[in-house]
Amino acid sequence: MQRHPYLLPAAMLLAVMTFTAGPSIGQETPSAWQANADLVEKLTRQRREFNYVESKVPKYTLPNPLLTRAGDLIRSPKQWNDSRRGELLELFREHVYGRRPDTDYSLRFEQTSEETQAFDGAATGRGMKAIIQIGDRSFSFPFVVFLPNNASGATPAVIHINNRYFVPLTTALEKPDPFWPVKTFIDRGYATASFHTSDVDPDKKDGYADGIRSFFADGKPPEDTAWRSLSAWGWAASRVLDHLATIDSIDASRVAVSGHSRGGKTSLWAACEDQRFAIGYSNNSGCGGAALSRRAYGETVGRITSSFPHWFCKPFSDYAGRESDLPVDQHEVIALIAPRGVYVASADEDLWADPKGEYASIVAAAPVFRLLGKDSIETTTMPPLGQQRINGQTGYHIRAGGHGLGEVDWNFFLDFADTLLK
């Protein structure tokens, strides 16, 4: 039977496997990561309506990122950039994240505070406000920027989409938090900026009236395919990048966007929509982020769209229980970021986010990186727990512990970022 080339069977991922030299005699090879059997059993008992058993993952095929909807195979970077990339963007806008408005607006920035000798003189910190103007109406959100004081030349930067809380300048200095470890960035030669998602668009089902989406729509209800909160938060990250691009000590061509969980979903989509971002970093992003929807492992499309309907456009919920009908899957989000950098991080105990599905997305996006002349992770087996894997434009690690973001994750990520941004 001839299989339609638009679909990429999961088994065919073996065709892109790469090999490395084996260990010396007497040297043990760390095992590829697998979900802990006791944890799988425990989670299955606790939440029987969701699947945590690998053998129960449904058989699935993935859309081929290099095949257009008309059935034409993309064979050159020009074809990708002129045709397929735009087509994929529109499919995700229509079926998953929603379409951003094309309303004209003006943008300006105000500095609200400054500390020129932060961290014993190592950095300058600034409190900022982004102000968006449409006619006589305005909307604003705060963000914070830290710049290394002792850098020689323009530095790279990381914009962190903080989905937990806003960290004002004084708090960042007085109560360091591993969720956004400013001193770590400074010590490693990076500028960094952060904003809180709910200051842009409230992270709740009934928060529409108070956010940027309602501002752009002048209070009118959103259409089914209009942007939702994830896309709005990513839009805000681009506005922070607009500001960083005005700072002489930052190289705006070397800026990464990062996020954890819902922030990680956002960072990937932000890097799709805005090609100025040099790297998209998602940490424990799971369903609607890096994890393949078709695996239906842990959190599913049905669960996430019913619990967080404000994150995704309405059509995404229509694929609950029929993920294989989606015209796209999350490996194509990673493909849309190519040939730029993508970093994905998982956690051993965070099976809700489907670590295997997150890693598989990177591998399934490799043909696009290859087409664009870049190396990417193609090894189908996952790395061992606590070990990082980097190949060209993509990187991955899975650490011990549960759903969260800390110094271990950041240092792994910055090791990867160093290979592309320094």
Automatic annotation (TrEMBL):
From what organism does this protein derive?
Stieleria neptunia
Q: Which residues form the signal peptide?
A: 1-21
Alphabetical list of Pfam families matching this protein: GCE_fung
Give the UniProt keywords, A-Z. Hydrolase, Serine esterase, Signal
MF terms from GO for this chain are:
carboxylic ester hydrolase activity
Q: Which residues form the 4-O-methyl-glucuronoyl methylesterase-like domain?
A: 134-373
Q: What domain of life does the native source organism fall in? A: Bacteria
Its name, as the record gives it, is 4-O-methyl-glucuronoyl methylesterase-like domain-containing protein
| InterPro entries, sorted | AB_hydrolase_fold, GCE-like_dom
Do you know which SUPFAM superfamilies this protein is assigned to?
alpha/beta-Hydrolases
